[in-house]
Design a protein that fits this description.
This protein is α/β, with parallel strands linked by helices. Helix content is 32%, strand content 19%. The protein has helices at 15-26, 65-72, 107-118, 120-145, 152-161, 165-169, 175-182, 186-193, 213-218, 229-241, 283-287, 339-342, 387-403, 420-426, 471-488, and strands spanning 7-11, 30-34, 46-47, 54-55, 84-86, 89-94, 100-104, 222-224, 245-247, 252-258, 261-267, 270-273, 276-279, 308-319, 326-329, 352-356, 369-377, 407-409, 417-418, 458-460. The strands form five sheets. Strands 6, 7, 14, 15, 16, 17, 18 and 19 form an eight-stranded mixed β-sheet that branches. Strands 9-2-1-13-20 form a five-stranded parallel β-sheet, with helices on one face. The radius of gyration is 22 Å and the shape is globular. The chain starts with 6 loop residues before the first strand and ends with a helix. The chain binds flavin-adenine dinucleotide. Flavin-adenine dinucleotide binds at residues 11-17, 34-37, 42-44, 57-60, 251-252, 280-281, 309, 311, 374, 427-428, 434, 462-463, 469-471, 474. Flavin-adenine dinucleotide is lined by residues 11-17, 34-37, 42-44, 57-60, 251-252, 280-281, 309, 311, 374, 427-428, 434, 462-463, 469-471, 474.
Length: 492
């Protein structure tokens, strides 16, 4: 006889944990969410600055419908809980030769801009690329991303039912190879190749299929009024309304099993009995025994690891470059920019991403404004940041921006920087990887763990779990886990 009101412990209030917690509390479970941090959101976090809290994690919100559905499914309207506004400019791109290109929410405007900047041939090539990636995105959405546990056999059957997809997939090529065949201008190869980094890969080692990632952004980018963490807070608040309880500053040290199924979790504040546990941390933490030897088989080794990053969050006055909300300052040499990352070294010629969150919606800030600046990095097993490494990174960033005409007053300092070592500390066992297992390799997508684990009562959600990293994907993984738990616990 199933327990009529099962006790569910959710370890982690990242977007995957929050999504599942909301769904489970709405479904009638007694839900307790535990997180080591002092607020919900996990990677969706902020840091203080003189201009107010500045985003220090994700900034590009895509696939809004995932969140509309999440709120709708619990009888709520997202608009009553958090304000999401569409950004007309998806991103502004700057190349070393002075070329500047805005990709727009309106595809016709993007096409016009590409034609104006790169000519008619590039515009034609973009149209073909956009149509093919749209076809791939739609074909993989239901059987892969929306599916709780996709299989290689199932996907193969899907492809065989639609053989027109096979040439578009270019399964034997890397993203860079496929893009070089599509676009004759290397700047567009560089632009669309960068989307590999959205899931922690590099374009010359990631499968061409990942070119479909650009579609997620191409279908619209939203900004969360007040910062990304407001979305996490809104979901946590709604889960609380449905009866979930949240305990922050609470670290889970062990997940206990009895007779092969989940029995309790041990925290630094005591023991909590559980009928089921959802783990929202990096699955590698379970595999490496950080939560006890009884649950190591919940996930296989999640290696190789995806990229990490150096992230500077700060307030400054900016002059010299006409920044939009989302900006990309490209490396000088697309052929070699990512090579140091494959050797676990710092990039000397990096592409930089700059989020100027006070410019969202076309605003022009006066005085100091908030910036998040991201430079890709290799993962690391270290947990102690190296001051010299931080200084070197800031010198590379400062020189790059100065050489492109952007001046910041003041320039970011070591105190503004989150290093791969910091990420490894805050997200245990992650090696600082921000997107779980590396997406490199054609079958990488099938090597991520799914919601159900081999241990009865233990479930997984988050960016390291199917369908993968990024805020909407991690939210989908939370929905998959929530649905599996409700089903297994005989709740609605
Ligand atoms: C700098 C940066 C930029 C990014 N940019 C974007 C972007 O623009 N767009 C986008 O869509 N995605 C972006 N991402 C990726 C996105 O943020 C993540 O994929 C997503 O937020 C991961 O959510 P998650 O569910 O895996 O939980 P996480 O955010 O990883 O949170 C997991 C939580 O679990 C808690 N936890 C783990 N172990 C324990 C334990 N033992 N006890 C208690 N608590 C525990 C942690 O404290 C943490 O709060 C970015 C990430 C970073 C870091």
């Amino acid at each position: 006889m199933p327990n009529p009101t099962p006790n569910i412990v959710v370890i982690g209030a990242g977007i995957g944990g929050l999504t599942a917690a909301l769904q489970l509390a709405h479904g009638g479970a007694r839900v307790t969410v535990l997180d080591s941090h002092d607020a919900p959101g996990g990677k969706m976090r902020t840091r203080p600055s003189v201009a107010g809290p500045v985003d220090a994690g994700p900034t590009v919100l895509t696939l809004k419908h995932v969140f509309d559905t999440l709120f709708h499914d619990v009888g709520a309207d997202i608009a009553d809980h958090v304000t999401l506004l569409p950004e007309p400019i998806l991103a502004r791109h700057f190349w070393p030769d002075g070329t500047q290109l805005d990709l727009m929410a309106d595809p016709a405007e993007s096409l016009r801009n590409i034609r104006d900047v790169f000519g008619g041939r590039a515009a034609q090539q973009f149209t073909t690329f956009r149509d093919q990636t749209a076809q791939l995105f739609d074909a993989f959405d239901a059987p892969m991303m929306q599916s709780q546990a996709p299989t290689l056999a199932g996907m193969t059957a899907q492809v065989l039912r639609n053989p027109a997809m096979i040439p578009a997939m270019q399964s034997h090529r890397t993203m860079t190879r496929a893009l070089s065949r599509r676009f004759s201008d290397p700047r567009l190869v560089q632009l669309f190749g960068r989307y590999a980094t959205y899931v922690g890969g590099v374009p010359d080692r990631s499968p061409a299929l990942l070119n479909l990632i650009s579609q997620a952004e191409g279908r619209g980018v939203w900004h969360v009024v007040g910062g990304m963490h407001k979305l996490a807070q809104a979901i946590a608040d709604l889960a609380t309304v449905h009866g979930a309880t949240f305990h922050y500053n609470t670290h889970v040290t062990r997940v206990e099993t009895q007779d092969g199924r989940i029995a309790a979790v041990q925290t630094d504040a005591g023991r909590i009995k559980a009928d089921a546990v959802l783990f929202n941390g990096d699955p590698q933490a379970l595999h490496t025994g950080l939560l006890g030897t009884g649950v190591t088989q919940a996930a296989s080794a999640q290696t190789p690891r995806s990229l990490s990053a150096y992230v500077a969050s700060f307030a400054s006055t900016a002059t010299g470059l006409p920044l939009a909300g989302h900006n990309v300052i490209f490396a000088d040499d697309p052929a070699t920019e990512y090579a140091p990352l494959s050797r676990d070294q710092m990039q000397t010629d990096p592409t930089l991403y700059i989020c100027a969150q006070d410019r969202f919606g076309g605003q022009t800030p006066t005085g100091p404004e908030r910036f998040e600046l991201i430079m890709n990095a290799s993962p690391t097993p270290q947990t102690t940041p190296d001051h010299k490494e931080a200084e070197t990174c800031l010198t590379i960033i400062t020189n790059r921006l100065r050489s492109r005409g952007l001046h910041l007053d003041p320039w970011p300092t070591v105190a503004d920087l989150t290093m791969p070592q910091d990420f490894n500390t805050v997200f245990p066992a992650s090696h600082g990887s921000l997107y779980g297992r590396s997406p490199q390799g054609l079958l990488a997508a099938f090597k991520r763990p799914t919601a159900r684990t081999p241990i009865a009562g233990l479930y997984l959600a988050g960016g390291g779990v199917h369908p993968g990293a990024g805020v909407p994907m991690a939210a989908l993984s939370g929905q998959h886990a929530g649905a599996a738990m409700l089903q297994d616990l005989h709740l609605t």
